[in-house]
Amino acid sequence: MKYYKIKSIIVLTFTVFLFACGTKPKADLVPSKREKPNILFIAVDDLRPELNFYGASHIKSPNLDKLASQSLIFNKAYCNIPVCGASRASLMTGARPTRKRFINAHIKKDEDYPEAISLPMLLRKNGYKTISNGKIYHYKNDDSKAWDEIWQADRLWSYALTESQDIRKNTKRGLPFEAAEVHDSVYRDGKLALKVIQDLNKLKQSNQPFFLTMGLAKPHLPFTAPKKYWDLYNRDEIELPESYVQPKTTPKQAFHNYGELRQYENIPKRGDLPEALAKELIHGYYACVSYIDAQIGLVLEELKRLELEDDTIVILWGDHGWNLGDHKLWCKHVTFETALRTPLMIKVPGKTKGQKTDAITEYIDIYPSLAELVGLESPNTVDGKSFVPILNGQKSKKDWAVSKFKDAVTLIKGDLFYTEWTDDKGIAYARMLFDHKTDPLELDNLAEKPEYQDKVKNLSMELREKWGEDFLK
Questions:
Q1: Were both Cys, which of 71, 199, 290, 428 would link to 347 (CB 3.0–4.6 Å)?
Q2: Which residues form the Sulfatase N-terminal domain (predicted)?
């Protein structure tokens, strides 16, 4: 049985789930037109744009492909910081990271920027039912006043097998991957899909517009998914990336020891990974992408069955990119394009049908765009710029983005990626420049070449103009 043909099993499981919760699913509910559109907000952890609609034909993701065919796809979308907690807080507030705000995975919006009115808070204040499901902020109860309801599955359900769960209980992170002969709903994201489906059935019966989130845990480590998704890929056909090299011209500050991965069991503590292990990790990542694709498909199918499609904006984003051996790196935490470029698409009923845009878009632009689409004005703490004009067929006037991680700050300007490592006073102590027209894999650092010094000087000035007034404060 193909992995996406599991409807009968899921319907049975879902029915039992709803009855257990005291809710009876209804197929004959009368649709109601709302004054304001609903928003289904799908966040995917560590999802890189290695997907069919971005040109990666080897990925099995039919549901994401279908959603993309109904959406506006952003070819050049970039997170503002490549680490989950900070990226999510920045996106949800529409505010840029600075040297002291939104700096790592463990920050909280409530502590770093308590005065900012978050997107869910803005919507809740304006009549929306707001439900946080899964991983939206890094911490479950961050920005808690913005939500009518917060729900997460137990983290232990990252593993299905008892022996894997026991290892997780007694180690820092547990095993890096698992392929188990189990039903989708045994893992966290399967439970998440059932919860979101339950919410859709409840929300269908209300005239109140909703902001419903689906925060998927995969393909974040550990790469755990039902075995049928692993079976979609032949490991003998998996290859290490073409950019599996660290050129000497690239500053040493650009690389790290991928400590996040090394905390898992059976991963070497230093040095390059053995090739077989590297391919097993890539295999697991692909399996997890196909697994979450199936869960997203179930939710989108239910949205359609309940006749909520025409009233609902669907937006899907990954919180940052991810390295799968690119530059001999794993995980994120760098300012190479592989960690900064992200999948982003938005389905707006009556407006989108598979269009693509090359307009450079930052994640802080998502907040003002959604606010405008539902007829709300963004607060003055929002730094982003709405991309609604692109949805209306206009050409974007913005051709740049700024991303940072620790001391590294990157200006993305057209095809140029310019990064400086700066101290607390904004003085640069290392730099790199890549031209994606001639070097899409970022293997030739141009920043120290004599013929590029005028270009570097101009980009350095522009970086400081665009990184935000509060950047050094």
A1: 71
A2: 37-375
pLDDT over 90 (residue 70): yes
Q: Distance between CA atoms of 176 and 377, rounded to whole angstroms?
A: 44
Yes or no: say if 264 and 173 are a contact pair by the CB < 8 Å rule: yes
- Considering only CA atoms, which of 306, 349, 309, 310 is closest in space to residue 30? 306
Residues marked as catalytic:
84, 138
DSSP labels for 153-222?
--GGGG--SHHHHHHHHHSSS--SEEEES--GGGSHHHHHHHHHHHHHHHHHT-SS-EEEEEEE-TTSSS
270: exposed, middle or buried (C-beta count within 10 Å: 0-12, 13-18, 19+)? exposed
Torsion of CA 30, 36, 40, 45, to 10 degrees: -170
Rounded to 5°, angle at Cα 132 from 304 and 392: 55
Residue 33's pLDDT band, with cuts at 50, 70 and 90, is low
Main-chain phi, psi angles of 179, to 5 degrees: -125, 105
Is the C-alpha dihedral spanning 100, 102, 107, 110 positive or negative? positive
CA dist., res. 309 & res. 348, Å (int): 10
Q: Is the pLDDT of residue 28 over 50?
A: no
Q: In the chain, what are the domains?
A: 7-397 (3.40.720.10)
Instruction: Give strand pairing partners of 430.
Output: 421
